[in-house]
Amino acid sequence: MSLTNKKIMCIVGARPNFIKIAPIMGALNGAVPLTLVHTGQHYDSAMQELFFQQLGIPKPDINLEVGSGNHGWQTGTIMQRFEPIIDENNPSLVLVVGDVNSTIACALVAAKKQIPVAHVEAGLRSFDRSMPEEINRVLTDQLSDFLFTTERSAKENLLQEGIEEKRIHFVGNVMIDSLQNHRLKAIPPIETLKNLNKKILLKELNKNYAVLTLHRPANVDNPLVLRDILLLVQSISEQIPIIFPLHPRTNAALKKNGLLEILEQSLNIIFTPPVGYLEMLGLMDRAKLVLTDSGGIQEETTALGVPCITLRDNTERPITVEEGTNTIVGTNPNQVMVAVHDVLATGGKTGCIPELWDGKAAFRIKEILLN
Ligand code: UD1
Ligand code: UDP
Fold first, then answer.
1. How far away, in angstroms, is 230 Cα from ligand 2 center?
2. Residues framing ligand 1 (Cβ under 6 A)
3. Are 144 and 121 in contact (CB under 8 A)?
4. Three-state DSSP string of the chain
5. What is the C-alpha to C-alpha distance for residues 37 and 291, in angstroms, rounded to an integer?
6. Average pLDDT, stretch 341-367?
7. Residues with C-beta less than 6 Å from any ligand 2 atom
8. Higher pLDDT, 205 or 83
9. Separation of 294 CA from ligand 1 center, angstroms?
10. Percent of the chain with pLDDT over 90
């Protein structure tokens, strides 16, 4: 199937989608007519607008303004609002990225209308169906005509699920395209903290701090689990200061359960609203250690050569452990403390850059779609 002179409709909805779509739209721009649909799954300025500005993503042509809600409601509402958009625009291909509700919702509508679907970041599997993302990944891949993978394990997963080999294309990682395109523009941590009016420890922070992000429902939705994690973070902060940009899901859970106090009382924890992409790159690049349950951050730390302790029991991105700087530790306090001490004592894993994480993944996607 050739798409030359045809129309590609790109879909975004949540924070990690913006980072993935930026290099793809950059590569396709001028080669084929593009339409950008934003589902509105993420809507706070700090979760989306800022990323459009910093990454130079064009203004969305259409915003479905779905907002937050339960899974069924959110997925169904995106589908309802997306269907007439497909009818009006009649794209030749719908391109979705990642594993969020916006990804599956738009892929499902397109597939039912027999519009070809391209899935960027196909084939990643945690084999944990309690994660909503895992369900989105499996279903989106079943619906897709072009499956673009970031690591070789993804192809094995897809073949196991009966997907035809000719649909699978190992292209590398668009998240790392963005990282390479913006690393030199990253904002130094001192500036980020100054702008946030966080005065403490500014001088001492140079290369001697950890960055933390948390937003997985398994870690933040249950107040008892969240409290235990915060107490653990408090203990870690006695070893090394922690910068903690709060995801809105986490912020809401902290407020609702009266847990913000734990952070407020911890002098060595600097918690902030979500930071922009250039701020985050700067923070991670100079950190001694990153603690996270994010998918994308496991990959970015590997690309930056910064040790990453993943506060989950599994990963869908095994290359970051096998070749990169990632260690899957879970949230058991003893195990996390051992892992932190190890990084502080030895400097942690150095790793190497995985195959095809070379900043050219979007270019390969373009070549495949257009030829
Ligand atoms: C979503 C994705 C997750 C991804 C994450 C990236 C799904 C099922 N989950 O999780 O895979 O890792 O985005 O960040 O698609 N909220 C705001 N403002 C916003 C957005 C959200 O306040 O702009 C709050 C609302 O209280 C909302 C909650 O965050 O209920 C969760 O938002 P939602 O998009 O449902 O899921 P995420 O946890 O963001
Ligand atoms: N990120 C950011 N600011 C933050 C936290 C994360 O710019 O305050 C970036 C991060 O560097 C990565 C992406 O957001 O590029 C990851 O998104 P998130 O962790 O929300 O989602 P996931 O990757 O887990 O789906």
1. 20
2. 14-16, 41-44, 47, 68, 99-101, 132-133, 215, 247-249, 252
3. no
4. CCCCCCCEEEEECCHHHHHHHHHHHHHHCCCCCEEEEECCCCCCHHHCHHHHHHHCCCCCCEECCCCCCCHHHHHHHHHHHHHHHHHHHCCCEEEEECCCHHHHHHHHHHHHCCCCEEEECCCCCCCCCCCHHHHHHHHHHHHCCEEEECCHHHHHHHHHCCCCHHHEEECCCHHHHHHHHHHHHCCCHHHHHHHCCCCCCCCCCCCCCEEEECCCHHHHCCHHHHHHHHHHHHHHHCCCCEEEECCHHHHHHHHHCCCHHHHHCCCCEEEECCCCHHHHHHHHHCCCEEEECCHHHHHHHHHHCCCEEECCCCCCCCHHHHCCCEEECCCCHHHHHHHHHHHHHHCCCCCCCCCCCCCCHHHHHHHHHHC
5. 32
6. 98
7. 15-16, 19, 213, 215, 245, 274-277, 280, 294-297, 300
8. 83
9. 12
10. 92
Helix (H) or strand (E) holding 309: strand 308-310
What pLDDT band is residue 198 in, cutting at 50, 70 and 90?
Answer: low
Proportion of the chain in helix, strand, coil states, percent, rounded to 5: 50, 15, 40
Neighbours of 56 (CB within 10 A): 12
Give the span between the Cα atoms of 139 and 145, in whole angstroms: 12
User: For the chain, which domains are there?
Assistant: 8-172+356-370 (3.40.50.2000), 184-346 (3.40.50.2000)
Reply yes or no on whether the pLDDT at 200 is more than 60. Answer: no
Query: In sequence order, which ranges of 169-212 are alpha helices (DSSP H)?
Result: 174-182, 189-195
The residue written with tokens 């930026």 in the block is 22
Residue type, 146: F
- Contact by Cβ (8 Å): 240, 209: yes
